[in-house]
Structures are given as structure tokens and as C-alpha cells.
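Record 1 of the preview.
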Amino acid sequence: MSKILRCESLSKSYFIGKREIPVLRNVDVALANGEMLALLGQSGAGKSTLLYLLGLLDQPSAGRILFEDRDVTDLSNRDRAALRHSQIGFVFQFYHLIPELTALQNVKLGQMMLTPPLQYWRQRKQVRDNATSLLEQVGLSDRMSHRPNELSGGERQRVAIARALISKPRVILADEPTGNLDSETAEGVLKILFDLNREQGIAFMLVTHNEALAKRCDRTIHLRDGMVTD
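->
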């Protein structure tokens, strides 16, 4: 199966004064088209850091990142943002919704970031229709006008999933997407993610410390102390 996103010898360090703090050390990871991949490890293992690097939200200290075999490590900030917004969706543990915006507006925002203002103005009805359809798809047809503080944790996460889907990404990077939810709500969110993977062929990298969840994925990679251990 062809690889859509991968990294080679990826390392990341941070500095406190002159002291170097290594977080990732020579990591090789590949995500195949349509794969549901679990990234398993304890807190502090480097899972979130790896996800941020693969999602082009941060720069590595060494190594390279490839999207469809194209080296994207050293793209300009503008080109990195364009690739990220058009091809990669994100789902975070704490949702990262804009509190002043409604659920519908939060989802539309994902498309607004991709589109020049004049073009967005011309396409605004289509964008609204797309956002409405996505919220209906995740079961929020009656909650579109509610702001995040009026939604439950599970509802907020479903808004975040709809927002991640608005640009029709080929990859979704999910960082502990159910870590802040009770077990019943978490299962509903996971069903949406697995359905998207199966029905739309979206590739997922799912960061978790839950071994039972990891076993439901196609493949599991273990991180420990910033290194792949299997």
C-alpha cells in the first residue's frame, strides 16, 4: 500500500537556556493511504510532538517529512500552511474551537482559511451548505447555532471533526481525541472516526495511550522516550 505521509530519521529537541532537551530521536514512521494507525505511548513519550511535526505545525531539528514522496520539510511557511489546510485535518483532545463562534461558524472557519476573501464571498452559500452537511453527518443538525460553551464535550469534539473534514483532507491527525470524554461519549466519537476511515478512505494517525483502542486500529506503533520501540 502506498504511503501518503512519512518521516525519516526525525528528531526534535528543545532548549532551556543552553540545555538541550531531546524529545524525538531518529524516528521513522509511515502512514499508508486509507490506514488507521495508532501511535501508542505513555505521557512524555513524544507522541504529540511527532504529530505536530507530521502535521507541519512545527519544524524538526533533524530528519525529513514526506507527503506522497515529496519532501515537505523545508517548505516556506506559506506553502506549509497551504498543504496543511488542504490535505491534513486535525482533531485535538481539547477541541480548539473559537468560543465566540457557533458550531456552524467554527466549521466554516476551516474553509475560510483556505479561500481568498473575494472567492469565499462568492462561494459562501456552498461553504455554508457543506458545513451544514458535515454537522448533520456527525449528528449535530439541531446544535448548529450553539456556541462551544453551550455544547457537551462530545458535541464539541464532533464539531471539531466536522471542522477537520471541511477541506476534504486525505489525512487526519488525532491527538487523544477521546481523552477528555467519558467512555460512552468517547465510543460515539470513535465510531465517527472509524466510519470515516472505512467509508471515505481517510488515513488516520491516532495518538493514544489506550491499548484497547490501539488494538482496533490496522497497525500500532509504540513510542518510548522519543524513539520507536517496535
